[in-house]
Amino acid sequence: MPAIGFKGSNARRRAWVIGASLDVWEIIESYRSFGESVERVVEETDLSERQVRLALSYYERFPEEIDERIVEEEETAKLYATRFPRFVFSE
């Protein structure tokens, strides 16, 4: 059984860990925000250690893909914050 799947159309496809509630880019962003601690990500999310390590392995192989997605998602959040200032967006 494969551990990484893809969601979305070819142009917008996103890697995700099968069985996880988050895409790989979201797991990597969480990992970074929790001080690059696998244990902390496991404690603070619904992810298992195996799922976090799978995401890290994917990121190690395809860092440009994941980094580009993170930047794109940050830009989208900033755009929405500008267009809809009544809503609160965390950075």
Describe this structure in words.
By secondary structure, the protein is mostly helical. It has one domain (4-83): Arc Repressor Mutant, subunit A. Helices cover 56% and strands 9% of the residues. The protein contains four helices and two strands, in the order ββαααα. The chain has helices spanning 24-33, 38-44, 49-61, 63-83, and strands at residues 4-7, 14-17. Strands 1-2 form a two-stranded antiparallel sheet. Strand 1 and strand 2 form a beta hairpin. It starts with a strand and ends in an 8-residue tail after the last helix.
What Rg is obtained from the alpha carbons, in whole angstroms?
14 Å
- The level 1 CATH classification is Mainly Alpha
Query: What name does the CATH topology carry?
Result: Arc Repressor Mutant, subunit A
Oligomer: single chain
Distance between termini? 35 Å
Query: Hey, roughly how much beta strand do the residues contain?
Result: 5-15%
**Principal-axes shape call:** globular
Helical run tally: 4
Q: From the coordinates shown, what is the CATH architecture?
A: Orthogonal Bundle
Indicate the percent of residues in helices: 55-70%
Structural class: mainly alpha
State the order of secondary-structure elements, H for helix, E for strand: EEHHHH
Q: Could you give a short account of the major beta sheet?
A: 2 strands, antiparallel
Q: Ranges with pLDDT <50 over ≥5 residues?
A: none
What number of structural domains do the residues give?
1
Averaged pLDDT, please?
Answer: 89
Q: What's the arrangement of strands in the largest beta sheet?
A: 1-2
Please tally the β strands and state the result: 2
